[in-house]
Every structure is written in structure tokens, then in C-alpha cells.
Amino acid sequence: xxxxxxxxxxxxxxxxxxxxxxxxxxxxxxxxxxxxxxxxxxxxxxxxxxxxxxxxxxxxxxxxxxxxxxxxxxxxxxxxxxxxxxxxxxxxxxxxxxxxxxxxxxxxxxxxxxxxxxxxxxxxxxxxxxxxxxxxxxxxxxxxx
Length: 145
What we know:
Blueprint: H1 8-32, H2 34-37, H3 40-65, H4 70-99, H5 107-129
């Protein structure tokens, strides 16, 4: 019987591959397009932020998905996605205000990283959301027999 459960090993392997490919894309953008080179600190910082966010979402989502309260999982995901989006926008606004980029094209590598991780997170969170609690998981038994 095939299960839809996503194991931590599969998740970390896929996250590692995604991070590798996005890192290669950023490297080439920075090396071969001088227009993007001046924004390396922003792009690498965002890559790290989204990498750590994915780990947090997986860890907490995995626990909440198998709880009896499915609303807790949904509320967590909606809140986490909203907070991630607001933090991303705040970082861009702060970067614009203080770094004074020479062009607005700095946003293109941001979108590459943001969209890659958002698609990945959506994929694994949908799989996690379909997981069923293990038999007896979350239930307390009366042991005073």
C-alpha cells in the first residue's frame, strides 16, 4: 500500500536539490549579468531565509498535520505564508530605502528565489496536509484499570 506521507529524508533531499539549483542560478546571474552582481548579499540572504523557513514549515506542519485538529494545520500554514510574504516585502522595502539600488532589476533574482521556494513549499505542504494520524495518535487512554 502506497502512502502519501513525506518522510524527513525525502523532504531534506528535495530541499537540498532545490537549494543547489537555485544557488547555481543565482551564481550565474551574479557572474554573467553585472546588473545583478551588486545585489548578491540580498539574494544569498533571502536564499538562506527561505531555506530555513521551509525547514520550519515542514517541522511544524508535520506535527500539526497528524493532530486531530486539522484547523490548527490550516491556520498555521495560512499564518506562516502571510508572515513570510510580509517579511519578504518588508525586506524589499528596506533594501530599496537604504541600499539605493541603481536599477529596479534587483527584484528579478528575488522572484526566482521566492517563486522556487513557494512552489516547493506548496507541494510538500499539500502532501503533508493529506497525511492521516497514526492509529491512536493523540488519544489518551485511561490507564487506571
